[in-house]
Design a protein that fits this description.
By secondary structure, the chain is mainly alpha-helical. It folds into three domains: 41 residues, no CATH class; 101 residues; 105 residues, no CATH class. Helix content is 62%, strand content 0%. Helix 1 crosses helix 6.
Length: 317
């Protein structure tokens, strides 16, 4: 790629008679140089630093051209950061925030949702890339024709450079999505050590415990902040089949014990939620009682679910 021409430099290019031979313009740089490059990045100064805008006064008591040069250098200086922050989340955020449900089945569900979104994004990028490659080939064929009219050639080569630059810029975000997919796949494999070999039907059977764990944690947060369970969480636990006031009294005792604890980690919280969930579902069968009161069977309908096991630990063996 040629160096950016200074204010005083000019290039003598063979142009049609109706084209004024002025200081080289962006379309001539593209036509003669950039269009033949495999990797293209058109600096802002190539466009804003030439033609009608070049000498306009800008901020800082200088010209548009001078500021465009400064911005080009600033963008180049910071471009290396894109290799780190070109994806949705860091691995820390995936593990600590996005996959933070107390139920491992809910974390599996979240991984499924995240992967579906990434698959869709990569699929869109894939076909956009195909369309761009197709258009590139069409332009190259048109440019190969002899005696091409000057302005037709200029416009085709400008479009060619625009597409090449767009493809180059897009790689950064494609790589970011790839990172997310690979990280999620690794977390999926790790989570299989916690919960594995389940089907859609199995998920239906553990939904009570999954929702109850979430509801209990949210109730604890209510009691910590307000001293009582909020209206919304009362409705949630009633829908599961639990007496809100009895649970509230228990939550207050737990929060008091939590306040007096010497532990800095949340192992006590997980232990309390897991133990209470097992007791309410397996011993008191609160969800079964409520379903029968509502007139429903507590058992999911197996014929309406996939029964094939997934997340197999020995899948590759």
């Amino acid at each position: 790629m040629s160096e950016v021409q200074s204010d005083t430099q000019t290039l003598e290019l063979k142009q049609p008679e109706n084209v004024t031979n002025k200081q080289v313009a962006i379309f001539e740089e593209i036509r003669k140089d950039l269009a033949v490059s495999s990797e293209v990045k058109v600096p802002l100064n190539y466009v804003f630093g030439k033609g009608q805008l070049a000498n306009l006064q800008s901020f800082g008591g200088t010209s548009i051209q001078a500021n465009a040069e400064k911005v080009d250098k600033a963008l180049q200086n910071m471009s290396e950061l894109q290799n780190i922050w070109n994806h949705s989340h860091t691995q820390w955020i995936w593990r600590h925030l996005n996959l933070s449900y107390h139920s491992p089945h809910k974390n599996m569900r979240q991984i499924c949702a995240e992967i579906a979104a990434k698959r869709s994004a990569l699929n869109d990028a894939k076909w956009k890339h195909v369309e761009a490659e197709l258009r590139l080939r069409q332009i190259e064929e048109q440019l190969a024709k002899e005696n091409l009219e000057y302005w037709t050639e200029v416009r085709l080569k400008i479009e060619l450079v625009r597409i090449k630059e767009s493809l180059s810029e897009g790689v950064t975000y494609i790589e970011g999505a790839m990172k997310d997919v690979l990280v999620l796949n690794e977390l999926y494999e790790q989570l299989k050590e916690k919960v594995s070999d389940f089907s859609e039907y199995d998920i239906e059977k553990v939904e009570t415990k999954s929702h109850l764990k979430r509801a209990l944690v949210q109730c604890i947060r209510d009691v910590r902040q307000f001293g009582s369970i909020s209206k919304g969480e009362q409705e949630y636990i009633e829908q599961i089949g639990i007496n809100p006031m009895k649970l509230q009294n228990l939550m207050r005792k737990y929060v008091q014990a939590e306040e007096n604890s010497d532990s800095w980690d949340v192992s006590g919280l997980y232990e309390f939620v897991d133990k209470l969930t097992e007791e309410l579902v397996d011993v008191y069968k609160v969800d079964v009682v409520r379903m029968r009161m509502q007139g429903f069977s507590e058992n999911p309908i197996e014929n309406f679910s996939y029964t094939e096991k997934v997340a197999l630990l020995n899948k590759d063996k």
